[in-house]
Prior knowledge:
The structure is a homodimer.
Chain A: H1 7-10, E1 13-18, E2 22-27, E3 34-39, H2 52-70, E4 77-82, E5 92-97, H3 119-131
Amino acid sequence: MTFALHPGLAADTAFIADWPLCRVLLMNDARYPWLILVPRRAGAVEIMDLAASDRSMLMEEITRASGVVRGLPDVIKLNIGALGNVVPQLHVHVLGRRIGDPAGPGPVWGHSPARPYEASARDGLIALVRSL
Amino acid sequence: MTFALHPGLAADTAFIADWPLCRVLLMNDARYPWLILVPRRAGAVEIMDLAASDRSMLMEEITRASGVVRGLPDVIKLNIGALGNVVPQLHVHVLGRRIGDPAGPGPVWGHSPARPYEASARDGLIALVRSL
């Protein structure tokens, strides 16, 4: 079985890069700087499904993504989550919260409909992540 | 600066154990099997604040907690999250979702008020986690 991105993730995101373990995606919601890391391991649903070496690599890629997002303007807090209640394919959200953002102190997942990026802003952010 | 559990976490949880890195807490909400891991590192807010060796240990303790929760009756999916929108002290939620649980496909955080455990159920779960 080879890795294939779940259509539910593909529909909501843009491709940024393949890091050693994860496909890195940009969530198409301009309200939050929001990366999604998808380990390229067919059939993985939970982090505990990964081999120990992959878990270590995932942690380092979460940290790498965190550094990107945490460095963006006005980001005051990271939210990191592996939920999978809707799309079972293992994926890890790494997103930045800002004062006054729509979800307030609550989680962003399921809060309200996304506001898609304009192409120029999306492409700029993709280029930034690729450059780091 | 020495580690001290944030009062906001202490208020909502019961102590289970100290693992090599994390204080392990039981969230006092009988609707979900829900552990909270708090790295005993003073001042840590984000996972990226931890040293690489601590990040590895955190990943292994997340995996250990995951194994406990995933093995409980009727748990079909894990939700793992480090949010900190309310309590800034770094803490990682490891909780199990069941079909028909109150939050449905959405996240549990901020969904609805907790339903505290009865003492016997709470103590039984604490003893189980300690035994594993």
